[in-house]
Amino acid sequence: MNKLINHMNEQLSLLQPSSIRKFDAEVSQIPGMTKLTLGEPDFNTPEHVKAAGIKAIEENYSHYAPTAGELPLREAAASFLNEKYGVQYNPESEILVTAGASEAIYAALFGILNPGEKVLIPTPIFPGYIPVTVLSRCTPIFIDTSSNQFALSPKMIQEAIAEHGASVKAVVLNYPNNPTGVTYTAAEVQALAEELEKHDLFVLSDEIYSELTYNGTHVSIAKYLPEQTLLINGVSKSHAMTGWRIGLLCGPAALIQEINKVHQFMVTTTATMAQKAALAAFKDGKNDAQVMKKEYLKRRDYVYNILQELGFTCPKPNGAFYLFAKIPEGYIQESMAFCVDLAQKNKLALIPGGSFGPGGEGYVRISYAASMETLIEAMEKLTQYISENRVTEAITQ
User: Which parts of the sequence belong to the Aminotransferase class I/classII large domain (predicted)?
Assistant: First the structure.
């Protein structure tokens, strides 16, 4: 063991590598595995976006961009967000181009938190917010939403603040939600905003799946609570550009100016040619997600119906590309054990629900960001597993 290992940042001892990535890597070693694991669109980046990236390279856009991002990109992003969701941002001072939504999460939380403060995190949720909170020497306060169809309510916020008091600094929202696909109506968003407005809290709203809302139109909480909201968006899911690493962090100018310091010393700036591609996505591809969304909807309905037939229960998602399904009674109930057993016996990989925090245990997350051919194969494997592995009584292990 290296003699300096015990001199590392002590907060790192409180963290574990991503269980989602770890499980995916492990099952990927099994020959013939069908994977419905990662949130990775199976579509390719639109041709006109790729062309813009190629052109940028050919025209030698290989030098540093401004720290906050190329102004034309920020202008196009501001126009996109205004046209789609009715939120208004000054591209010169209220938008920061980040290295994907992940960096936006880190820069925002690291920029607003002081040691000892608390962050309200409704679960089940994408776990990326938790390690940033811990590394900031702060405490995540989990709000289990499973009793309310996986939706955060104003009452839940009231109760959490009443219990934890002035030490609560921020609340995280993620909708459409990963892993449940649950999202909010305009009335529900407005109700959350009215409650949050009563408190001096930052609202970190990760809306990266906003363009993948199936029925109705996505409503951003920034529309009702602009002074408290730090809005995260980007092109990863809407334009199948996960590898380009372009995200957005939007908010009041004074807040963005300070968070930009964190961003600057983390990454300096994002890749210039990727920014040129994202400009094409926001400017000329405002509806690129519609083709993907139409296909995702077909896939959602197919998988959802099969799950119902097999005895799984789950909310029918109105966004993103995940189903969060309760393991039927009579089968292994501990989610990791269930997923390991399924992978070993039938070569099908799903993500254990326990990876997503309180309220997720006993569930599995199924990503339908896969071809229909893959989904049919996966459901055949799941059907076979369910038919052959029922136990006399539910067990945990």
Answer: 33-381
